[in-house]
Amino acid sequence: MRIVAKLLEDFSEDWHWVELENPQEIDPDERVFKIDSAETLCGILLSGPTRTRLHDTGAPAQPDCPSCLQIVKPLSAELIQDISEALGD
């Protein structure tokens, strides 16, 4: 599962693309997941397996970490619209 998140261990203001490996929701009310590991696309690795709680902190739709953005370019609104139309959404 890929999310946009800030990492407490990072101590920066950047939002990152974060890949959660094998997430299993164990407490839906508290948004707690068991994960094998987590890693940002720019290379910050969190060891696992572990439990993690996702906090709603108003994450943007796209990260602002320059390194994450170099790896995955955000889709333009026009391209997203074209894809939706092609899929019949």
What gap, in angstroms, lies between the N and C termini? 22 Å
The share of residues in helices is: 10-25%
Strand order of the largest sheet: 1-2-5-6
Our Rg estimate from Cα atoms comes to: 15 Å
| Overall domain count | 1
Count of alpha and pi helical runs:
2
Question: Which key features would you list for this structure?
Answer:
89 residues, four-stranded antiparallel β-sheet, 2 helices, 19% helix, globular
Task: Give a written overview of the molecule.
The protein has 89 residues and is an alpha+beta fold. The chain has one domain. Helix content is 19%, strand content 31%. The strands form two sheets. Strands 1-2-5-6 form a four-stranded antiparallel sheet, with no helix packed on it. It is globular. The model has no long low-confidence stretch (mean pLDDT 78).
Outline of this structure?
The protein contains 2 helices and 7 strands, in the order E-E-E-E-E-E-E-H-H. The protein is of the alpha+beta class and 89 residues long.
Question: Which helices and strands appear, and what pairs or packs with what?
Answer:
Blueprint: E1 2-5, E2 16-21, E3 24-27, E4 32-35, E5 37-40, E6 45-46, E7 50-53, H1 66-71, H2 77-87
Antiparallel strand pairs: 1-2, 2-5, 3-4, 4-7, 5-6
